[in-house]
C-alpha cells in the first residue's frame, strides 16, 4: 500500500508533552505530531490525472472541517527529478491518520499506485512526541504558506546513540531560532522529527520562501549550534534532499 503501517521504535517511547514542557522559548504552545509520514514517489503515467487527484487530496486534507486531526500536508517536487515528488504529512494521532487513509481521495491516489501510474520510492514513518521539551514540531501549518512556492530542504541524519541528548540541545536552539521571524524573516517552517524504525535517525523539514533564505539561515548563531555539534563527530550520516513546494 501507499501508506506503510506505523509501529513504535524500540527505545523510542511516544508521549505527549503538557504544560510548560509543551511551550517553546518563543512563548507559543507547540502542537506535537503523533504521526509524520514522508513519502517519495514518481509519476510514471497519467500526469494530469494524478496531479488533479493530488490537488484534491491536498485541499481536502488541509480542510479542518474535513480532517481536524491533520497538522501539515505539503506536496513537494524533487528539484533533481521532473516527475519526482514528496509528500510531507503530519497528524495528531494514529486514529487521525487512519481516518485520512479511509477517505475517498486517499483511496483515489492509492488507485494510481495500484495501477502503476505512480511508483512509491520510499515511505518513512516518524513522529515528534518522543523528542523531549515540546519544541520539535512547529504546529499546525499556516494556510498562508500553502500559497507560496517555497524552497524546501529535507535533511536526514543519523546520530550516535550516546550523543542524542546533546543533539536535542543543539537542535532545540536551531529550531526555535529558525522560527523567529525577526531572525529569519523568510523562514516558513522548521520541524525536527524522529523516525520510528531507527530511533537515532532524525529528519529536519525546513521550508523557506526562496533558496537565498537558506544562506541567511546558515549565517545565524542558532545554526552555528548545529555546526558546532557536527564538528564533535556525533553525526554518523547526513543526506539532504532539495525540494520545491507545489502551490496547490
**Uncertain regions: pLDDT < 50 for 5+ in a row?**
1-29
Give the CA-CA distance, first to last residue: 24 Å
Major beta sheet summary: 8 strands, antiparallel, barrel
Category from helices, strands and their pairing:
alpha+beta
Estimate what percentage of residues fall within beta strands. 25-35%
Strands, count? 8
What do the pLDDT scores average to? 87
**How many helices?**
7
- Lateral arrangement of strands in the main beta sheet: 1-3-2-8-5-7-6-4
Helix content: 25-40%
Specify Rg, calculated over alpha carbons: 17 Å
So what's the overall shape? globular
SSE order = EHEEHHEHEHEEHHE
What characteristics describe this protein?
alpha+beta; 7 helices; 8 strands
Explain what the structure shows:
The protein is α+β, with helices and mostly antiparallel strands and 248 residues long. Helices cover 29% and strands 29% of the residues. The chain has seven helices and eight strands. It has an eight-stranded antiparallel β-barrel, surrounded by five helices. A hairpin with a 5-residue loop joins β2 (70-78) and β3 (84-91). Residues 1-29 have low confidence and may be disordered.
In short:
The chain has 7 helices and 8 strands; from the N terminus they run E-H-E-E-H-H-E-H-E-H-E-E-H-H-E. It is α+β, with helices and mostly antiparallel strands. An 8-stranded antiparallel barrel has the order 1-3-2-8-5-7-6-4, surrounded by 5 helices.
Amino acid at each position: 500500500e501507499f501508506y506503510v503501517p506505523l509501529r513504535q521504535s524500540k527505545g523510542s517511547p511516544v508521549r505527549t508533552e503538557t504544560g510548560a514542557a509543551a511551550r517553546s522559548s518563543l512563548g507559543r504552545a507547540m502542537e506535537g505530531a503523533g504521526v509524520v509520514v514522508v513519502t517519495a514517489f514518481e509519476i510514471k503515467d497519467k500526469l494530469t490525472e494524478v496531479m488533479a487527484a493530488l490537488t484534491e487530496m491536498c485541499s481536502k486534507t488541509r480542510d479542518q472541517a474535513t480532517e481536524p486531526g491533520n497538522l501539515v500536508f505539503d506536496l513537494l517536487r524533487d528539484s533533481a527529478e521532473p516527475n519526482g515528488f514528496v509528500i510531507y504529512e503530519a497528524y495528531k494521532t494514529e486514529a487521525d491518520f487512519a481516518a485520512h487513509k479511509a477517505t475517498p481521495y486517499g483511496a483515489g491516489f492509492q488507485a494510481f499506485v495500484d495501477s502503476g501510474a505512480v511508483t512509491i520510492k520510499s515511505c518513512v514513518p516518524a513522529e515528534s512526541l518522543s523528542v523531549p521539551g515540546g519544541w520539535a514540531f512547529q504546529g499546525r501549518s499556516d494556510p498562508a504558506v500553502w500559497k507560496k512556492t517555497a524552497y524546501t530542504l529535507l535533511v536526514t541524519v543519523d546520530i550516535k546513540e550516546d550523543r542524542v541528548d546533546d543533539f536535542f540541545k543543539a537542535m532545540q536552539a536551531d529550531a526555535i531560532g529558525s522560527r523567529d521571524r525577526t531572525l529569519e524573516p523568510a523562514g516558513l517552517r522548521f520541524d525536527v522529527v524522529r523516525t520510528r524504525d531507527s530511533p537515532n535517525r532524525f529528519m529536519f523539514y525546513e521550508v523557506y520562501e526562496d533558496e537565498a533564505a537558506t544562506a541567511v539561515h546558515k549565517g545565524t548563531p542558532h545554526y552555528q549550534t548545529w555546526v558546532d555539534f557536527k564538528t564533535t563527530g556525533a553525526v554518523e550520516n547526513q543526506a539532504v534532499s532539495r525540494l520545491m513546494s507545489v502551490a496547490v
